[in-house]
Amino acid sequence: MAGEVNVLPQVQQKETQSTTHSAAVTATVKTESTGVGEGLKLNPGYFRTVPGILKLVQVVIAIICFGCGSPAVTDFSRFFLFVVSICFIVTILLIFIYFFGLKALLPSLPWLFSEMVYTAIAVVLYIIGAIVELAMTGDSKYTYALKMHRFYNQYIAAGVFGLFNIVAYGAGLAFIFKDWRESRQVS
Fold it and tell me: 101 burial class (0-12, 13-18, 19+ CB within 10 angstroms)?
């Protein structure tokens, strides 16, 4: 075997190491709309406008009216808090409608006109509620009992803040009326 020749092919192996790798991945995603939430967009910029600021002021004053007018131990204070509660709830709903852009979901509704009617009703109700709160608190029939139970000053404060909210809702009504009138001239 001394004279045998190696007939197996010689394989040369060369090792190389690559230190750079690059890969590109492309993903295609097909999305389908469910119809829910189309046209919705957050609109925090509304609260930088005068009507938006007025709505926030109305809510803050209503919270103060709640604090000053509670507990409602007389019929007139119950009526005042009823007015404040209804206006507070509707104003909060309007804030959500404007913040989440829900007006875009139902464009056929007369939003400005509806809001104008609501705001006019709120002004009238606040006028009645605040005047009744102030007048009846000062009435001699109630004054002694209210002072005795220490509700007199807070009911007066509730009525005064009710007057402030009349101004806030009245200013809001003026801006809504202006926008409504401009939208009617465009149509």
Answer: middle
